[in-house]
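Entry 14. Ran structure prediction on the chain below.
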Amino acid sequence: MVQHCAALNRSVQVVNLDPAAEYFNYPVMADIRELIEVDDVMEDDNLRFGPNGGLVFCMEYFANNFDWLEDCLGHVEDDYILFDCPGQIELYTHLPMMKQLVEQLQQWEFRVCGVFLVDSQFMVESFKFISGVLAALSAMISLEIPQINIMTKMDLLSKKAKKEIEKYLDPDMYSVTEDSANILKSKMFKKLTKAICGLIDDYSMVRFLPYDHSDEESLNIVLQHIDFAIQYGEDLEFKEPKENEKDKSATLDEYFQDQVDE
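Output, structure tokens:
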């Protein structure tokens, strides 16, 4: 995404907030590892944390030292910043640190949008898809900010899998229920699955965008929806996604058809 924005002559800065990150193939304006690093926490004889405990400790320490981040952001002229966050789901569902970060950024007058990433290879079956949707909803409820849900690594799917996963981008949850019913044997779990799918369908809160880093149109669609969520550049003019819901579906259909034809 950083390279894509650079090709558009669009200035984007990146802040790394993953204390367990190992390397980047793009420059970062601030790196949490300058404040605290998971390896240092795990090697501390007094703490004796494992990888997960070490990560939580690092994020708690970060939440108590937001002044470090404020100092890093205070001199930035560019106003579009990507925060590269850890991938552990518990940070976004039942621990307070990321919620505290969102609230702090909002106090600094940032418009914040969450981008929830799910591996497309994990979403090609109905059971896995339902789990991914619930995880996305949990993060959305916890953070209380606009959220864009993305299926990543589309370029790694086979042609058959790409065609199969298309139905999960804007899903008919009752069709998912039927798919699950054919596999589930327990009546109790059939009812539970039906109730979950009905809840998701009734509120229509979760949709997914395909992300293929090798496809310019895919990158444009994702960036466009993020811009709309935060109304980026609204001081110049009101911005909407170029396509309405019908056009959006057509665009995604074209994307998948191109992938299948290749």
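The chain has two domains: 1-110, 114-222. Will compare against last week's run tomorrow.
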